[in-house]
Design brief:
Blueprint (H helix, E strand, L loop, with lengths): L1 H4 L1 H10 L5 H7 L7 H6 L6 E11 L17 E5 L6 E7 L12 E5 L10 E5 L5 E7 L4 E3 L20 E9 L3
């Protein structure tokens, strides 16, 4: 155990009323089951949540992905700051949302958040197994692309009959 091998490390901080070096905090934080940020500044960081990456979603026309049978076998994405909800990660295919989530990025969707909010983004279902990723707008009600490609057009629900919502997109993860 790291702390047992260096008892003078902590004793020296207390006796000298000195600030520890950051490399010392990085070494001892796991032993104390905390973070270096908490030891140095009292800042509590949010714990990561392991989110299953269940499939992909088409940012374009409605697309049908292979169904996920068992999410316990799904790859995981570690994400901080999610709070309460039922979260899933999806790969983005297509460019109809490329100003927010470019093709190849990963989005995090809260399955429990289906309340429509102006300018929020959602996974929209077509009722036939297809899904797409779009931004919700009102007056008139529509789900629209946020794209650099002008070929993509909004989806206008018939008679304001809102399609089923899989969940609200709350985060995009883009590799640099």
């Amino acid at each position: 155990m790291l702390a047992a091998n260096k008892p003078d490390l902590v004793r020296g901080w207390r006796a000298k009323d000195a600030l520890p070096r950051i490399d010392s905090l990085i070494q001892i934080a796991p032993v104390l089951e905390t973070t270096p940020e908490y030891l140095a500044f009292g800042i509590e960081t949010e714990a990561n949540q392991s989110v299953p990456k269940i499939s992909w979603v088409n940012a374009g026309a409605f697309g049908t992905a292979d169904p996920v049978v068992d999410i316990s076998d799904a790859p995981r994405v570690e994400v901080a700051g999610l709070g309460d909800g039922e979260f899933y990660a999806l790969d983005i295919i297509g460019d109809s949302m490329d100003r927010i989530s470019p093709e190849g990025s990963v989005i995090i969707v809260n399955r429990k958040d289906k309340r429509l909010v102006q300018n929020a983004c959602y996974i929209v279902l077509d009722g036939h197994g297809g899904a797409t990723y779009k931004r919700y707008r009102q007056s008139p009600t529509r789900f629209e692309p946020v794209s650099t490609n002008p070929a993509h057009e909004p989806i206008f629900p018939d008679n304001d009959n809102i399609p089923e919502i899989f969940g609200r997109v709350i985060m995009t993860i883009v590799r640099m």
